[in-house]
Amino acid sequence: MDELETAMRRSPAVALLGPRQSGKTTLAQQYVERHGGTIFDLENPEDIARLGNPMLALKRITGLIVIDEIQRQPELFAVLRVLCDRVEQPATFLLLGSASPAIVAGVSETLAGRIEFINLGGFDVWEVGVEKLDDLWLRGGFPRSFLAASKDDSVHWRRNFIQTFLERDVPQLGYQLNAVAMRRFWTMLAHYHGQTVNFSELSRSFGVSDKSVKRYIDILCGTFCVTQLQPWHENVKKRQVKAPKIYVRDSGLFHTLMAITDHHELMAHPKLGASWEGFMLHHVLRLLRPRDAYFWATHSGAELDLLLFRAGKRFGIEFKWADAPKLTRSMTTAMNDLGLHHLWVIYPGIKAYPLQDDVTVVPASMMADYLATE
After folding, report:
1. Cβ pair 140, 266 in contact under 8 A
2. Which of residues 148 and 24 earns the better pLDDT score?
3. Which domain holds residue 240?
4. Which of 51, 99, 135, 316 has its CA 20 to 30 A from that of 155?
């Protein structure tokens, strides 16, 4: 809420973006309760009718105007540009969307310099408490999944979310894709979770071109379902990996796609380490909000899960599902080749300890104390 308050004070328009059912509407309603305002829900036929002539409808309203599911009517952005440019600025706009500006035609160009973006990704460990970290990891951050009364209810909600997203939400964005085929593709992509993606291999398995595979991935990334982490290339005498890494953004959805329903199945699953890596990686990105984030890997086996740049310094982060991580040859290579100022190793234990002066093992429950203060 504090970030939203600050953004609304300095910008005529703020876009609150994130996947469906991640809590955007609830946060907006809480903001309206504090400050007052008018809400338009573009999934409500009455509100759609009210915006039949958007310029006439909106220019008479003063104060806060909230428009939910803005991606359903991208033509509104041209109207909002005019309204944001009024000298007296009688109204401010809070726009809620479940698709990134990259796949909503014209938003970045139309409202450039007038709009601020805030990404919302459901619950994180600091909201629910570190004592519930394991449940958050298994169920994911969607409020209805995490807060479900039982394990079965949580699994059922996530299965329905995936079905509804593919059958309704994707077509509403203008993509006419077969829902069954798209579900199969998303499941195939989940098997690459935490790995570099081989577009040619995916295209052969799925029976489409490399271009189509990249398009499908762009849709899943643009709707906040998948994250592509780009590789960093360093001027070293080693062959470096150039393909992006893929992660299903929500750990609960990843577990559903992999048919994991409880902790026992998760602990025995071959993707356990990858699941932990993706879960922690997204927490770190939410905590630090870096402008750019990368991974680094060489064909000889050296790898760094996350490379960040802060205040002119380079920092590395590794995610290890282990009782007591030790310094590895890969970590040493990354430290030397990349010139890291510090390397953190995030693990599920309870004690922090140094591996050397510039390498520290940190429990997941304490990562905010270490990473946010460097």
Report:
1. no
2. 148
3. 136-371
4. 99
